Amino acid sequence: MAITSLPITIDRVRKAFGTYVALNDISLEIAAGEFLTLLGPSGSGKTTLLMALAGFVRPDSGSLVIGGRDVTRLSPDKRDIGIVFQNYALFPHMSVLANVEYPLILRKVSKADARARALTALARVKLEGYGDRNIAALSGGQRQRVALARAIVFEPRVMLMDEPLSALDKNLREHMQFEIRRLHDDLGITTIYVTHDQREALTMSDRIAVMDAGEIQQIATPSEIYHRPKTRFVAEFMGEANILPIDLLHRDDAGATISGLAMIRAESFHLDPAEIAGSKVAVKGTLSTKAFRGENWLLNLKTANGDEVMLSVPATRSAGCAGFRPGQELTAYAAAATVHSLPEGAAR
Amino acid sequence: MLDAYQDNRLSKTLLWSFSALVLLFLMLPTLIVVPLSFSASDLLEFPPREWSLRWYESFFMSSAWMAALRTSLILGILTAAVAVPASFLACFALNRLGGRTAAGIYALLLSPSVTPGILLAIGLFFVLAKLGLVGTLTGVLAGHVVLAIPVAVIVLYPALNRFDWAQAQAARSLGASWFQTMGGIILPQLGLSLSTAALMAFLTSLDEAVISIFVANGPSSTLPKLMFISLRDQIDPTIAAISTLWTVLISGVVLFFNLRDRGQNA
Amino acid sequence: MSAAAYLQDARRERRFYLSLALPALVLVGFAALLPVAWILRQSFLDLGGNFTTANYGKILSSGLTWSALGTTLALSGTTLVLCMILGIPLALTLASTSTRIANRVLILIMLPLWTSILVRTYGWLVLLRKDGLVNAALQSLGLTDAPLPLVYNFNGTLIGMVHYMLPLFVLPVYAAMRDIDSNIIRAAASMGAGLWHCVRTVILPLSAGGILSGSTIVFIYTLGFFITPAVLGGGKVNPISIRIDRTLSTFQDWGSASALGVLLLVLVLLTGAMLFATRWFLNRGTRHA
User: Fold this and answer.
1) Fewer CB near the last or first residue (10 Å), C or N of chain B?
2) SS3 call for A81
3) Which residue in chain C is spatially nearest to B4 when comparing CA positions?
């Protein structure tokens, strides 16, 4: 399947439901062949944006352009977009093969051709031999694959996925993340993926757009988003983040003191300063709680002025953790390079 | 539900025996007419001393009864044919509109079911009299359709609300037009509810008596109207034969539905 | 794309859906709302077509109206009480068995529901006559010497109405009981509640919504019952519906008949209002408890 993928331009798209603003003048450029994830809590507007692209939500203003063509007012059936829905939306009254053939039949592809292409698509998602099954007889993972096959079979130039893995259990979900990414790399279709799972977003995306309250908070590569969040919201949404006043940190190189907030990821902390080469910062506190999580220990420290600091110590270098007692004084160290100062005005 | 009390045998026995008596009360009047319909006697003696098919003969040989039966069947079919499509479109609109508008229209569509039949009957008689439609099939049909609409709406509205509308979106995104989505995705999956609604609309019309009594006459007289007149004047055992036929028909329908639903669940 | 164009799109879509509901609305308007409106209008007109309240004066000053009102309320009230006495234990029994068995028993309840009211009325006529099966059974059991007058009176009408309404009462009550979480009852039992105590303090309050729905259906339907009193009442039971028929067929008095119709409608509306009030009260009670 050779697919010419297309870029997408979202220009100042706005959508309000009554007084509730779901999309607040969103603008976004997506390159041809890119895998972009819209990440955010429920109600952040990510699904509304996806449904606007699909044509099911009509924006109040702004425009949606796919491959140079304005599709803002185009009806959904004319958009040629492959969509994988949250609960798959497979047609229960049709067989697996009929589901996958459906978009081809609508495009007046000959019966034999449609069958051949549907079988190829099923093979691509590793469902050879499942064509005659009933949808009701499939497991969650298999339904997911049928939904994928149905969305790619007509060689759409853009793919939209709305939390496609949310109904699967953890192991299968992680497996499917790689499969979907592999499918994307094989086909090169421009893909917009919606999820509220930050780990999923980090694993799969070329770029992540973090959304909240109908606005894009930050759009960047996974590593940039994780390590250099622009706002407190992004920092906290992306994982165990400690947001501390910078002056709380004791720097050993006595560099320029700046005021403001700093973010340090829980896993950036070390208990043994010798593990860090170069300049480092230190935080003192008393241990309030500790928990063993298998791959790491989670320790909570309370600093003298009441701030909470969370440390994640990998199991491989956590020799002393089991013996710690609540109330014990501890000092945590982090390499100065891992301290990310949040830009001004990022307090929320 | 009461598994916590499964050892309380006395209460359980009491509850079940009482329920069995209530069920007997419910079944008795329908069952009693079956042997009577095969009696050879003019008297309603039980058990009948001699058996015959004379009451079935008197039903099927009577042109008046046959005309009423035909009228009732035609009315039933027409009622379903008008009420179900109208109700389906309305329910579809309610589902898409939502909110206060939908709630208002829904209440309006159900209102005939709580309006006393006698009120609809004499009111409709007034209206039809103005239009010169008293005694016509159209007049009775209007009354039956208006009673069948609430029944059809009660079946179809929840079915449409249960429907996974993401499927319609999926079909649209795959290239189906509005009509292709309706015909290929929505209607086939609602077939069960539509056929249920049609059958219930048909039975509503077949069973309707009060409107027919006031609005129908002559050739538009329905089976229930004739039965009513016959019951009020004298107890004619022909009614036992009609009742038996009716019971057999309804048992068949109820059993069919039950088996079909069971097949659906399996 | 301008905001006005978008707004127009939304309006057009709304109008399209409203137009889909139109056929059903027109039918209901023509054959239900218009007739009721016509009755309302007719009730305020004299023979010459002038406005008058004389029709109401006439029916309200007639003893027949008041006795009809009494009969109507007595029939509806007694039917409701009997439906509760017979229906609640039946619903409880069904709810306490497996869905599979309950569904089979439900067939037996649905069967009479879909049998013609005339077939059922005929069945009761046959059963309750002086030489009918019920009297024969009572006599052979030695419970009575002479046959009891069971039909062509209030009791016969009542039996027919209870029989008609019972399935419609049982279904919502059963559905409400089926919805009760079994663990709630297990919890009550674990805290020492006996079966009857549990029924009284847990099951009945939790199925109050279903009982209320069932009761409303019974009361509203029975207020306007016509066929059953007309056949099983034998001319001696005259609720408002029968009076309307009498006023029309015997006296050709359209004005009074319409006024009686409005009286019936007011009763139905009052019952509906009571339902809303009770439901509101129930909901409020749960919120504060």
Assistant:
1) C
2) strand
3) C186
**Over the stretch B43-94, which tens digit does the pLDDT of each residue have?**
777 778 888 888 899 899 989 899 999 999 999 999 999 999 999 999 999 9
Nearest CB among B22, B85, B228 relative to C90 is that of B22
Would you say how long chain B is, in residues?
266
Number of domains in chain B: 1
Contact between A60 and C9 using a beta-carbon 8 Å cutoff: no
Q: State the ipTM, two decimals.
A: 0.88
Q: Which residues, other chains included, contact B11 with Cβ-Cβ below 8 Å and sequence gap of 6+?
A: B5, C195, C196
Contact at CB, C21 and B27, closer than 8 angstroms: no
Using a CB-CB cut-off of 8 Å, the residues of chain A touching C6 are 58-61
Supply the CATH number for residue A289's domain. 2.40.50.140
Query: Do A225 and A270 belong to one domain?
Result: no
E strand residue ranges, B155-265: none
CA distance A18 to chain C (A): 13
Q: Is A61 in contact with C1 (Cβ distance < 8 A)?
A: yes
Q: Which domain holds residue A290?
A: 242-342
Counting one residue from chain A and one from chain C, the pairs whose CB atoms sit within 8 A come to: 13
What is the total count of domains within chain A? 2
For the domain spanning C62-288, the CATH number is: 1.10.3720.10
Neighbouring chains of C at 3+ CB pairs under 8 Å are A, B
Chain B residues whose CB is inside 8 A of the A118 CB are none
Q: Per DSSP, which regions of chain A are E strands?
A: 8-17, 20-30, 35-39, 61-66, 69-70, 81-84, 158-162, 190-195, 207-212, 215-220, 241-245, 250-251, 261-265, 269-270, 280-292, 296-302, 308-314, 329-335, 340-341
The reply to whether B173 touches chain A by the CB within 8 Å rule is yes
CA C130 to chain centre: 29
Counting Cα atoms < 13 Å in the Cβ hemisphere of C207 gives 30
Quote the distance between the C-alpha of residue B157 and its chain's center.
17
Q: Do A83 and B173 touch (CB under 8 A)?
A: yes
Closest approach of chain C CAs to the CA of A73, in angstroms?
9
Residue B203 maps to which CATH number? Answer: 1.10.3720.10
Q: Same domain, yes or no, for A297 and A179?
A: no
